[in-house]
Amino acid sequence: xxxxxxxxxxxxxxxxxxxxxxxxxxxxxxxxxxxxxxxxxxxxxxxxxxxxxxxxxxxxxxxxxxxxxxxxxxxxxxxxxxxxxxxxxxxxxxxxxxxxxxxxxxxxxxxxxxxxxxxxxxxxx
Length: 125
Fold this sequence. Notes:
By secondary structure, the protein is α+β, with helices and mostly antiparallel strands. The protein has one domain. It is built from two helices and ten strands. The strands form three sheets. A five-stranded antiparallel sheet has the order 6-5-10-7-8. A three-stranded antiparallel sheet has the order 3-9-4, with no helix packed on it. A two-stranded antiparallel ribbon has the order 1-2. The longest helix has 17 residues, at 3-19.
């Protein structure tokens, strides 16, 4: 390519780079999008079916699932305010020691998650 063509394409490359969603790669090599960047506090999630370190989740009924993918109980045992429970077919990562207003938003459920031992996935049913 000629120098003038390369220089002409530079603004386009800069615009495209600025439009990319912010995100990060975890220590498993999976890319995660994030509005606020990686805070080191939230769970990491992956849709990769070949990620051998991720724990598979089989959601069979509404409620809380622990970091090992096992059903941990319904909301009667956890006492999360109803407004913060995810809608049907959606999931939400829940960290009990964080205020409800700082919990991540509900999102489509994934087949596998990387959670800290103190975190749960709430399945909306």
